[in-house]
Amino acid sequence: MSDSRVPFSEIYLATEPYVKSMGQVRIGASGIGWKAAEGESEALQGVNIPGLSMPAGMLALQREDLRRLQWQRVARGYGLRIYTKSGAMHKLDGFTADDYEVLRDAVKRFFSGLTLEVRDISLKGWNWGKTEFEGSDMSFRVENRPMFDLPMAYVSNTNLANKNEVSVEFQPPRGAAASGKGTKRKGAPDELVEVRFYVPGTIATGSSIPAKTGAKDGEEEAMSVDGDENGDEDDE
Fold first, then answer.
1. Which of 109, 144, 163, 205 has the most CB atoms less than 10 A away?
2. What is d(CA 45, CA 234) in angstroms, rounded to the nearest whole number?
3. For residue 232, what are the CA distances in angstroms to 198, 200, 208, 222, 228?
């Protein structure tokens, strides 16, 4: 290990969701750099990633532009999310659990004022929660922990499917990757093309809701939400 730079091998540049290109990461006093391995830069042709220079396939992020660094569990092991002051967000995937301490120490050593945050992912499997925006991504959160992110740059259409349901359609942009441009790619893996969110309405806490309470012949009794027939009419 060099005294001036800390390297990590076999790391994927995952900033672009439809690109899979592996290379090496180096962290030093000047910033964070990623360089595609031999033959891997072809997948980056035509991709517009801030800071990526072609045809060498090099991504250079200067120290003064780094705003926030996050470590999280991803499909390819562990990943590093890099937020920049210019508004871009980059993803580097393929780290191992053992890389965390090395990466944390490198950040502490080279980047004064920055820390490697741990982004805990919700694994509860619930399908209800809250949404919020983080840069250009929409994050679905359960108990204040992110469960998944949706890249808004790939939203092709949104639609109010009905009174309480919003559909979001996804489509890779034209020229998303040289290896399989466009939306119809023979042999391509399955991809998410639509997600729907149910948005519940409001109900008065003291309103009466028809409910089966054992009445004969299907008769219904008025039942208060809070158990009080004369409850307050506050929205909930």
1. 205
2. 57
3. 27, 20, 11, 15, 9
